[in-house]
Amino acid sequence: MHIIPRFEGDGGAPLHAVGGERPDLSDDELDAVAEAIAE
To answer: Where is the HIT domain positioned along the sequence (predicted)?
Structure first.
């Protein structure tokens, strides 16, 4: 579960609307992100 703070005027839409569109990353870029998170 993730807790995402919400604020008045943030759009009030589903989380994806608040966070923006998913970035188009290559498998190598996704692996680098996963490694950074694991550290």
So the answer is: 1-13
Query: Tens of pLDDT along 1-39?
Result: 677 777 787 776 766 665 667 778 899 998 998 999 899
- Can you tell me the distance from the alpha carbon of 30 to that of 24, in angstroms, rounded to the nearest whole number? 10
By the 8 A CB rule, do 4 and 18 touch?
yes
The structure's pTM equals 0.46
Give every CB contact of residue 22 below 8 A, 6+ residues apart in sequence.
16
Nearest to 4 by CA among 25, 19, 23, 24: 19
